[in-house]
Specification:
GO terms for molecular function: alcohol dehydrogenase (NAD+) activity; S-(hydroxymethyl)glutathione dehydrogenase [NAD(P)+] activity; zinc ion binding. This protein has eleven helices and 17 strands. Strands 3, 4, 5, 8, 9, 16 and 17 form a seven-stranded mixed beta sheet that branches. Strands 12-11-10-13-14-15 form a six-stranded parallel beta sheet, with helices on both faces. Strand 11, helix 6 and strand 12 form a beta-alpha-beta unit.
Length: 382
């Protein structure tokens, strides 16, 4: 049995959003003690992910307000609730949006990383009872995001969504393992299983797309093709292992898929769509090799449009795979990625382009919206 500490509600600073698209306000909030199967975590640093921006803009459900955003973070366990095993105060941890109960059929299987007992959902409260652990100064409830809500000095997270990490990993770097970098690296490593000498095409060189490139590099891919409309991504991509760059605006009469097929003598072995547009998903599929080409979809279609592909192409041996958290099992695989970082196999520090204190969190939003940052570290004590 874990140690159950009797603790009280605490008043701490958090960045609260009270309406869709409005700047976040740093205010004092009440953070309740953890209930059974929960941990209260002192957040050391967090960072801004595009998913936070998506829900920050969302006016209709599941966009609910007031809300504390943030789900990519590093912290230290402050206290544990009843029935928590394997964690103690002082443990270095990262929260994750995806649960791993280690008991359900999916968690026990090597074929899935989507926990079927605590399946991912964008709910406004905690996963077991859908209630909140946050209140404002007037006692009114403040909603969670993904059961993490890391834009707060302290937060409460379900034990199935917390992973211990080696404290030797620097906080800002450990933070990246919580979502974006793990999603991209995992998609190449765990889901696609990119092979040495293979060819890879990545559509969209944002943080996740560049993480795919990093994962493909580690796996030994010989040709990593980056596709992006931003010409600045050509030089940036090289830092992450991109060997060839395509700007669709500079192809004249040729299509992206035609160019990739020519570059790879028949199509890329693995194609990754990292933007969230059905047209690009189709381009990725068309760019994959007949016979064994895999297309991995990482981006959620931003307009809700369906993906339409030719059944004949499927008969030719191509396949399409969906990706949630890059196929990574959080409690099993994040420590492996941490070890790869410590062993200098996995290069994560290059994802961190800016840093701010909690009081300047809106600057992180500005930098991401202007396309100036990959990851901006937000420190709680600065």
């Amino acid at each position: 049995m874990g140690v159950w500490l009797t603790v009280l509600p605490w008043r701490r600073a958090a960045a609260v959003c009270r309406a869709a698209g409005e700047p976040l306000a740093v205010e004092e909030v009440v953070v309740d003690p953890p209930k059974a199967h929960e941990l209260r975590i002192k957040i050391v640093c967090t960072s801004l992910c595009h998913s936070d921006v998506t829900f920050w803009r969302m006016k209709d459900f599941p966009g609910v307000f007031p809300r504390i955003f943030g789900h990519e973070a590093f912290g230290v366990v402050e206290s544990t609730g009843e029935h928590v095993e394997g964690f103690a105060a002082g443990d270095a941890v990262v929260p994750t949006f995806l649960a791993q109960c280690s008991e359900c059929a999916d968690c026990r299987s090597s074929r899935s990383n989507v926990c079927s007992k605590y399946r991912f959902a964008v709910r406004p409260g905690m996963p077991r009872d859908d209630t909140t652990r946050f209140r404002d100064g007037d006692g009114n409830p403040i909603h969670h995001l993904f059961g993490v809500s890391s834009f707060s000095e302290y937060t409460v997270v379900d034990v199935t969504q917390v992973v211990k990490v080696d404290p030797a990993v620097p906080p800002a770097t450990a933070c990246l393992l919580s979502c974006g970098a793990t999603t991209g690296v995992g998609a190449a490593w765990k889901l696609a299983k990119v092979e040495p000498g293979s060819s890879v095409a990545i559509f969209g060189l944002g943080a996740v797309g560049l993480a795919v490139a990093e994962g493909a590099r580690i796996c030994g891919a010989s040709k990593i093709i980056g596709v992006d409309l931003n010409p600045d991504k050509e030089e940036l991509g090289k830092k992450f292992g991109v060997t060839h760059f395509i700007n669709p605006k500079e192809l004249g009469e040729k299509t992206v898929s035609q160019v990739i097929i020519e570059m790879t003598d028949g199509g890329a072995d693995y194609c990754f769509e990292c933007i969230g547009l059905a047209a690009l998903m189709n381009d990725a599929f068309q760019s994959s090799r007949a016979g064994w080409g895999k297309t991995i979809i990482l981006g959620v279609e931003m307009h809700g449009a369906p993906l339409t592909i030719s059944s004949l192409e499927i008969l030719h041996g191509k396949c399409v795979m969906g990706s949630q958290f890059g196929g990574v099992k959080p409690k099993q695989d994040i420590p492996i990625l941490a070890d790869k970082y410590l062993n200098k196999e996995l290069e994560l520090d290059k994802f961190i382009t800016h840093e701010v204190g909690l009081k300047d969190i809106n600057t992180a939003f500005d930098l991401l919206l202007q396309g100036k940052s990959l990851r901006c570290t937000i420190w709680m004590d600065k």
